[in-house]
Amino acid sequence: MNYRLKFVETDGIETISDKTWLIEPISIKAKEIVREKNLILRLRGLQTYHLKKMNYGQPCTDCFDEIMSMQVDGNCTTCYNTRFIGGYYSPVSTKAFMTQTPDINTINRFGEFNPGQVIYSISAYPELF
Length: 129
Known about the structure:
Elements: E1 2-3, E2 6-8, E3 14-16, E4 20-21, H1 28-44, E5 46-50, E6 64-65, E7 70-71, E8 92-100, E9 106-108, E10 111-113, E11 118-122
Antiparallel strand pairs: 1-4, 2-3, 5-8, 6-7, 8-11, 9-10
């Protein structure tokens, strides 16, 4: 998106800038990569749900002791061990790919992976948190 900036000095002198990009546009190649990944995820991805843990809100009265300032029940079904009633925000639905790594240590462009680890890939949208 193009913008022009107008600067007004204290003595009233105005200066208008040339057209400026405040946010650099995404290249056509990058847009195509994102489009292809989203298409593949939509057609072949697994339906997943992401839960964000609450870190503020109404304190749980069933498992949290305000005098000791600590959680006294480690298996609370009111807050799900988050200390806040409800425990988690509403789930965000998205499609994802999950693949297991090989049986030996592997180093690829994403980093080093150990046996038993999972590669989890999602799109940039929707923004999760």
